[in-house]
Amino acid sequence: MSKVELKKKLIDEVEARKEELIQLCSSLIQIPSENPPGDSTEISEFIANYLKTFNIDVDWHESADKMYNLVSTIGNTEQGKQLIYCGHTDVVPAGDLSKWDFDPFSGEVKDGWMLGRGASDMKAGLAGLIFATTILKRLNIELPGSLTLAIVPDEETGGEFGVPWLLKNNIIAGDGCLIAEPSSPRNPTIGQKGSYWFELEVVGKPGHGSLSPIAGPNAIADTVRAIQEIQKLWDIEIEVPEEVKPLIEVSKRYMKEVEKDRVKYQPVLEKITVNIGTIQGGTKANVIPESCKVQVDCRLPFGITEEEVTHYLTEKLDALNIEYNIKPISFRSQANCTDANDPVCRAIVDNITFVTNEEAYGVMQWASSDARHFREYNIPVLQYGPAYLPTIHGYNEKVEVEQIITCAKVYVAAVIDFLY
């Protein structure tokens, strides 16, 4: 049987069993796995039992209390290439249930849509990875290499106990990786901006409000001046390295032609974005505030490092003659990407076209994800998964059923191209 014939056989098998795939996705959504609190016990037990039904062994790794990483490997582990399929079980909290038009944990299918928290991010993609793995096992496909399914519990709060924990402890390794994170139907994300989150604390001198602005200094007033300087990060002209310019240009094309409502956001691909996320300061209107804290989320494009940003900020804030302190919060990373011609990128992109008969190409992500961890370990990686992007992390999250099926077909076909 030729490689093309084998892929068609696997794709046909997914099509024939698509109701089973959709039921699997519904079952995953029906298990609340909100993070926080981050207890993955119930969903991990469900997945492990499902895989065992098809004689797929599951290794459990508890990285933190009630946070379980599940690792399963099929194929030839003695030789050949290693491919990793990765997904996370945790979802962001559903929030105010009265603002949902349906039960966020119903897993209901209605009018061609899968409904519920995690439908797009990323239980539909996770279901596809699991299902594709079982199809290969059910048909006894003799793989010339191995496929490892890595299911992690902690992506939505930074991922410290998920992917980076597995990599640090040498539990998973591979020549390529696919993460089933939400993406556009024909455009996997093969690169992402860096992340630079920090907290700025400005110190003042308390006193009676009736003596301000002579008395002080006023921590809030000085923070306002500092914020004005921080926001100027957006104005820095950054020279994008030649090797990533094609990725930037194709991503601009994507924003113009595919997600047309995003065309106005094209500049974020080459700029430092600045979001003043929280501000907290003062005790009372008639007291000069002693402290003010601001938390800031910056995303860094290719061409600038966090060290350069820190130097810029220090220089500008020092010039204000204020007392302040900057400390990093959450994760920090540099802009990173995988070459569009890397075998793992080609395996996914080529099979999107193989399955759909439509043009596909990889693009830049303006946020961050677990992909950066794989690249830190020199594992080429990209992200491709079913999603209705406007509903991610919001109310009434959903995804088209047809997309779930399409992605599962791509997943199972890509294994063949990558490993053979």
From TrEMBL:
MF terms in GO: metal ion binding; succinyl-diaminopimelate desuccinylase activity
Cofactors required: Zn(2+); Co(2+)
Gene3D superfamilies: 3.30.70.360, Zn peptidases (3.40.630.10)
Transmembrane segments: none
EC number assigned by the record: 3.5.1.18
Pfam families recorded: M20_dimer (PF07687), Peptidase_M20 (PF01546)
Statement: the UniProt record of this protein carries the keyword Oxidoreductase: no
Pathway: Amino-acid biosynthesis; L-lysine biosynthesis via DAP pathway; LL-2,6-diaminopimelate from (S)-tetrahydrodipicolinate (succinylase route): step 3/3
Single GO biological process annotation from the record: lysine biosynthetic process via diaminopimelate
Enzyme class: hydrolase
Catalytic activity annotation: N-succinyl-(2S,6S)-2,6-diaminopimelate + H2O = (2S,6S)-2,6-diaminopimelate + succinate
Domain Peptidase M20 dimerisation: 190-324
Keywords recorded for this protein, A-Z: Cobalt, Hydrolase, Metal-binding, Zinc
Family statement drawn from the similarity comment of this UniProt entry: Belongs to the peptidase M20A family.
Name of this chain's protein: Probable succinyl-diaminopimelate desuccinylase
